[in-house]
Design goal:
Blueprint lengths: L1 H17 L8 H16 L10 H33 L1 H15 L2 H17 L2 H9 L11 H48 L11 H26 L8 H11 L8 H12 L3 E2 L2 E3 L2 E3 L3 E2 L9 H28 L1
Antiparallel strand pairs: 1-4, 2-3
Helix pairs in contact: 1-4, 1-7, 2-3, 2-7, 3-4, 3-7, 4-7, 5-6, 5-7, 5-11, 6-7, 7-8, 7-10, 7-11, 8-9, 8-10, 8-11, 9-10
């Protein structure tokens, strides 16, 4: 347990320092390539009238099982082999794996690229920058729409990309951490409500809802707590108020948990109608428009994300210390 706790904390610090430098091969990209290749092989590409919804759901389930099996097998083999060679090597490998599982710095940097693009190059550059981190259509977004999309991504991924993997890695090490990331990656790649993935991505999307159910609520709770201690730009009281009112204002049972807490904490309104694959999806608003959203809110959302992570990390370190 001591080695795991040391590697866990070291991995978090590594993520804060280096994030995803880009010039190193990233295991999550390998998982993404595996998903893509299996999808190409398994998913029927024929005309709609030749497709069988039940068969596609079965293939989607096989995708989930196959990707999780390969992920757990590879990670567990590398991890146990490294600890077998020497405990210190095991700590180094586990720390590196933990760093790869987390995405706090990369989330912050990618969102800040949107802010920089808007300020230095204009709206079109901002649209291109935000298109890298959101799933919606961005070509017609106005400036405030670009900012809102970036803030929503930071708020939602505070759970999906930061707190949830932190919790799963603490509980089950990189094996469970990477298993979670595999589920999350499958959902982001095939969990769409469109003609191609409606049936094939069904199990990936549902499993993602299940594994994120508790982490999303834990993330929102700690985000609310963090807002109480972050100065006059944030409001813990309003974060709690909007969370209680708007936490289910989304098709996903989890996405609006942290979005509502963030919107309340920053006194802004998020969500609303958005375009996906050329089609407008009607969505309710989250939060109250106490003030207009502004570029600085992207950075404020990033600060709130980091503060939430630090609070969760301190609690986990305390729990880990009690278990030694």
């Amino acid at each position: 347990m001591l080695y795991h706790l040391i590697a866990f904390v070291a991995g978090v610090i590594l993520d804060w320092i280096i994030g995803d430098p880009g010039y190193f091969p990233h295991p999550i990209r390998w998982i993404g390539n595996l998903i893509s290749n299996l999808t190409d092989v398994m998913l029927t590409k024929n005309l709609k009238d030749d497709r069988n919804p039940k068969a596609e759901k079965q293939k989607g389930m096989a995708l989930v099982i196959g990707v999780l099996f390969v992920t757990v097998l590879v990670v567990s083999t590398l991890l146990y082999a490294s600890y077998f060679v020497h405990p210190y090597l095991g700590v180094v490998i586990e720390s590196s794996m933990t760093c790869y599982i987390l995405a706090a710095k990369s989330l912050y940097l990618e969102s800040m690229k949107v802010s920089v693009a808007l300020q230095e190059e204009g709206l079109e550059a901002g649209r291109k920058a935000v298109a890298r981190i959101v799933g919606r259509d961005t070509f017609a977004l106005e400036k405030k729409g670009v900012i809102k999309a970036a803030v929503e991504t930071v708020a939602e991924n505070t759970s999906d990309g930061v707190i949830a993997p932190l919790l799963y890695t603490f509980i089950g090490g990189p094996i469970l951490g990477f298993a979670y990331k595999a589920v999350n990656t499958m959902d982001s790649m095939v969990g769409y409500h469109n003609d191609t993935y409606e049936n094939f991505g069904f199990f990936a999307a549902k499993l993602d809802d299940v594994v994120n159910f508790l982490p999303a609520r834990i993330s929102a709770l700690f985000m609310i707590i963090a807002a109480f201690f972050m100065g006059k730009e944030y409001s813990g009281r309003d974060a709690l108020r909007i969370f209680l009112r708007d936490r289910y204002q989304h098709k996903s049972p989890n996405s609006a948990q942290t979005e509502s807490a963030c919107a309340g904490a920053m006194h802004i309104r998020l969500a609303g109608d958005a375009s996906y694959f050329g089609k407008i999806q009607k969505k309710p608003f989250i939060g109250d428009p106490i003030r207009e959203i502004e570029i600085e809110d992207i950075k404020r959302a990033g600060k709130l994300m980091y503060a939430t992570q630090v609070l969760v990390l301190l609690v986990l370190i305390g729990l880990g210390s009690l278990m030694l």
